[in-house]
């Protein structure tokens, strides 16, 4: 399998830290190296940004007033697999261990060495890129794509539960799942879904797309009221993680 390239152009990095000087220093350093950088002074502001922003990686401080970084990480991992690098005090070994156990991808001690931080960002993004490419290769080889606990058989146009039992889906539901499978990790608006699903009977701004996705969620999500597989990106559309 050909190794995927790591194109840093337009890679969005979100820096969440309550120290303005550190945020600005990291943002300036990464911007000069081709990254697009957004800043959040605390976990609440980070959560608001994530309603519309889809970063390639998050740099998250552990010790912040209000919601601390470990709590923010736990909340984040309930719905996202975005790579997270934690910033910790050099002496806080426990924070590093707990962070890694909770799903952090790496950590950097304070005071921050910017060259080390950049190297760890590249490594995390590279792992994410390779993992995605390997999963896509596996999907092509098996002809199936995982959707939460279910699997979609692309060749047979069938959806199977984790038990192996077939789940009844309509032709349009299969088309929507296929479009999501072909655009893993990409946010799609309603027009794009309508166009790529090739159902010419739909009106261009037909909101029934929301109803159809709601029905799909009842079939593929562990908890349809808190979807983790096909997520809503507020003000834009939907994304399949």
Which short descriptors sum up this protein?
241 residues, alpha/beta, Rossmann fold, Arc Repressor Mutant, subunit A, 2 domains, five-stranded parallel beta sheet, four-stranded antiparallel beta sheet, disordered N terminus, transcription
Q: Strand order within the widest sheet?
A: 2-1-3-4-5
* Global structural class: alpha/beta
Name the overall outline.
elongated
For the record, the count of structural domains works out to: 2
Taking the alpha carbons of the first and last residues, their distance comes to 22 Å
CATH architecture of the largest domain: 3-Layer(aba) Sandwich
Q: Could you name the CATH homologous superfamily of the largest domain?
A: Response regulator
Q: In CATH, what is the class of the largest domain?
A: Alpha Beta
Q: How many strands, which pairing sense, and closed or not: the largest β-sheet?
A: 5 strands, parallel
Name the helicity range: 40-55%
Percent strand equals 15-25%
The counted number of beta strands is 11
Modified residues (4-aspartylphosphate): 61
DNA-binding region: 142-241
Domain Response regulatory: 12-125
Pfam families: Response_reg, Trans_reg_C
């Amino acid at each position: 399998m050909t190794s995927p390239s790591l194109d840093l152009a337009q890679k969005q990095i979100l820096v969440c830290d309550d120290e303005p000087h550190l945020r600005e220093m990291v943002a300036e350093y990464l911007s000069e190296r081709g990254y697009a950088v957004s800043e959040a002074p605390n976990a609440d502001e980070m959560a608001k940004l994530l309603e519309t922003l889809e970063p390639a990686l998050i740099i998250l401080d552990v010790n912040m007033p209000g919601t601390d970084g470990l709590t923010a990480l736990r909340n984040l991992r309930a719905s996202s697999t975005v790579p997270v690098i934690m910033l910790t005090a050099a002496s806080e070994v426990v924070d590093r261990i707990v962070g890694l156990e909770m799903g952090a991808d790496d950590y950097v001690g304070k005071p921050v060495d910017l060259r080390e931080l950049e190297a760890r960002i590249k490594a995390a993004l590279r792992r994410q890129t390779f993992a995605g490419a390997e999963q896509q290769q596996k999907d092509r080889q098996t002809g199936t794509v995982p959707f939460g606990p279910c699997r979609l058989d692309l060749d047979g146009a069938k959806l199977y539960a984790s038990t192996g039992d077939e789940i009844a889906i309509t032709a349009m539901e299969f088309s929507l799942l296929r479009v999501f499978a072909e655009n893993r990790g990409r946010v799609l608006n309603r027009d794009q879904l309508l166009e790529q699903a090739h159902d010419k009977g739909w009106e261009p701004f037909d909101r029934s797309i929301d109803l159809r996705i709601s029905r799909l969620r009842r079939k593929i999500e562990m908890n349809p009221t808190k979807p983790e597989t096909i997520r809503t990106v507020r003000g834009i559309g939907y994304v399949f993680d």
